[in-house]
Hints:
Layout: E1 12-17, H1 21-27, H2 31-47, E2 51-57, H3 74-79, E3 102-106, H4 117-123, E4 128-134, H5 136-149, E5 153-162, H6 166-176, E6 182-184, H7 186-192
Parallel strand pairs: 1-2, 1-4, 2-3, 4-5, 5-6
Amino acid sequence: MTHNTRIAPQTTALLAMDFQxxxxxxxxxxxxxxxxxTAKLLAAARNAHMTVxxxxxxxxxxxxxxxxxxxxxxxxKETNRFAPGAANTQIHPAVAAxxxxxxxxxxRVSAFAGxxxxxxxxxxxxxxxxxxxxxxxxxxxxxxxxxADADYRLFVVKDCCADSDEQVHHVxxxxxxxxxATVVSADEIIGEx
Length: 193
């Protein structure tokens, strides 16, 4: 690795964001290799005793969290796509959370917007984040921006992120994210652990 990639597992959290079946099926290109790499990274993080936190999209019955003025989310409300308890909103079984791992439910794009993620990270003394998720142009971008402004040390695991638009994924991981994060592969992180 050419960057300062020394990672202290005890002060690092791996965020597995929006790996829900509905999102994997709708936005991940080459989903099986993505899931396999992410599962391998999760196993390495757990073996290193790193904190693993899942972030999922979720709403209450009737979607009270969604305003009709929200262009991004009102379609979810209209189509009932993330109905509470629906099987397709569960974390994909290939990368499922363990019973002792935190699952943060969010109602917006960023993992931080309106959630208790920051409180959980601070209570655990976490200063470094490994970002994985779907979509690169959605949850990964929004979470990275917030986390950078909050002074977290950031790594984006580019091959454990996916977007329905491969060109957007490439531009973000090669040109935009490196301004605020170290962009690495799953194998690089696994090798470091």
